[in-house]
Design goal:
Shape: globular
Order of helices and strands: HEEEHEEEEEEEH
Helix content: 10-25%
Oligomer: single chain
CATH topology of the largest domain: Metal Binding Protein, Guanine Nucleotide Exchange Factor, Chain A
Distance between the termini: 76 Å
């Protein structure tokens, strides 16, 4: 029968004799702590791999927070010019929520309407884009993924307005790409599927 060798795998302990209170050695404590941290990290990664049922987020300065009691109905990239200008990014990414499932505190900010039928809101303190509402998609609220605490677990499932994509921007994926608006998908497909929403203007 093989004998237990405490120095196996613990090179810094190789010169130390066996003791009844092995864990008292500083080097052993370091190895044990490392093992515990690795185990905890593994559990955290396993939890983050599942889609969140409750979503939270905030603006840049933290003056406005949001909370959704249900997971997004859809998540999508939008390459349209309007969404690029609103977010300041070369491509926007939004999550679609049921209007009754999401709330903003203290409110959803200052409303701006540039395009008819499109209402966007911004934090009154820092100007972060908070939400988008579209007349042709009643009862739905769109929130930029960058505001959400769980953004790492919310991957887009569609590209909208692909025809307006910046020519130097190449996102390598196998997602469906709509040359213009994706609203037709929203009208005929199940809303619960990711990437079905329309995040662009009319």
């Amino acid at each position: 029968m093989a004998r237990f060798r405490p120095e196996a795998g613990l090179s810094c302990c190789a010169a130390m004799p066996m003791r009844n209170r092995l864990a008292d050695q500083p080097c052993v404590r370091r190895h044990l702590l490392s093992l515990v941290r690795s185990t905890r990290k593994g559990k955290a990664e396993k939890v983050s791999a599942s889609a969140p049922s409750v979503v939270s987020g905030r603006c840049y300065c933290g003056a406005t927070t949001l909370r959704a009691s249900k997971a997004p109905l859809a998540i999508a990239y939008c390459h349209c010019t309007d969404c690029r200008r609103v977010t300041g990014a070369p491509v926007a990414a939004f999550a679609e929520f049921d209007e009754d499932a999401i709330s903003f505190a203290p409110n959803d900010g200052r409303a701006v309407m540039v395009t008819p039928g499109v209402r966007r809101s911004f934090c009154e303190a820092c100007g972060s884009p908070l939400s988008g509402r579209y007349g042709y998609l009643p009862g739905r609220v769109y929130v930029a993924l960058g505001l959400l605490d769980q953004a790492n677990d919310l991957a887009p499932g569609l590209h909208a307005h692909e025809s307006e994509r910046l020519k130097w921007l190449h996102i390598q994926d196998n997602l469906p790409r709509q040359e213009r608006s994706a609203r037709t998908h929203l009208a005929r497909k199940t809303r619960a599927l990711p990437g079905v929403g329309d995040v662009g203007p009319p």
